[in-house]
TrEMBL record:
Span of the signal peptide: none
Superkingdom, natural source: Bacteria
Membrane-crossing segments per the record: none
Residues in NYN domain copies: 2-154
UniProt-listed PANTHER family: SLR0650 PROTEIN (PTHR35458:SF8), SLR0755 PROTEIN (PTHR35458)
Entry protein name: NYN domain-containing protein
Organism: Pseudomonas asuensis
């Protein structure tokens, strides 16, 4: 299977993935396919870089991190416009990403869109009409329309070691799939490694069960679709942190 990975870098950076490990992302999909294209799209504000050295330093490190992971990078300068309300900025890379994907789609079996932006729904539909499988991954602030139209949606928090350093929510990340309130149980799934196949029954997926206390039930943090960081092995309420919510 030939896979192309396309990262809307600004969208991901502003929605939970500012510390995303691009190399981990690439290797995750290499486990089940041949990644023939890996490309990221990023807008750069030259004026802001001159005004704020911390932004310029972050940008340089961000570019180096993407390129060292084997991704090609398209950088689009942010443009500024004067109008009646002041100065506005424009640095959207949606058009560039869309054109690249549609141009290269005939050489791909699977397209992975790394974004939560609902503006890409039409692109997903166009790819599916060509017979290309479309998978979407993102962390949070994700368009429900994009989730529903994709062949597969995977919350990026579930990918092991996807975030760098202290940003990595470990020991593991789980997704609550079902809850038995009468029995005070929650059933979850999580990934222990990159799956070697596209099947949801791939052994990389691990399923388990949590015993819920009354306070855990009352907190509403243990409901279907909740993405939780689980630190340590104890299943008490303090061991869990809500990262995102995905509609199942």
């Amino acid at each position: 299977m030939r896979t192309g990975i396309y990262v809307d870098s600004d969208n991901i950076s502003s929605s939970g993935g500012s510390y995303m490990r691009y190399e981990t992302l690439r290797r995750f999909y290499e486990a089940s396919s041949v990644v023939t294209i890996a490309k990221a799209y990023h807008a750069f504000d030259e004026v802001l870089a001159e005004e704020k050295p911390e932004y310029a330093n972050w940008h340089a490190a961000h570019v180096a991190r993407i390129q060292s992971a084997g991704f090609r990078l398209l950088i689009k300068p942010v443009k500024r416009y004067n109008n009646d309300t002041g100065t506005s900025r424009k640095g959207n890379v949606d058009v560039e990403l869309t054109v690249d994907v549609l141009t290269q789609a005939d050489k791909l079996d699977r397209v992975v869109l790394v974004t939560g932006d609902g503006d890409f729904v039409a692109l997903v539909q166009a790819l599916q009409a060509k017979g290309v499988r479309v998978e979407v991954i993102a962390f949070k602030n994700i368009s429900s329309d994009l989730v529903q139209i994709a062949d597969v949606f995977l919350n990026a928090y579930l990918i092991p070691e996807i975030l760098a350093g202290d940003a990595q929510p470990r020991d593991r990340v789980i997704q609550i799939m079902n809850v038995d309130l009468n029995g005070q149980r929650a059933f979850y799934s999580c990934l222990e490694q990159a799956p070697a196949t596209l099947s949801p029954d791939d052994p990389a997926w691990v399923r388990g069960e949590l015993r819920l206390t009354k306070s855990m039930i009352d907190s509403r943090n243990f409901r279907p679709g909740k993405i939780l960081a689980w630190r340590g092995r104890n299943a008490d309420e303090e061991a869990f942190e809500v990262l995102a919510t995905q509609r199942l």
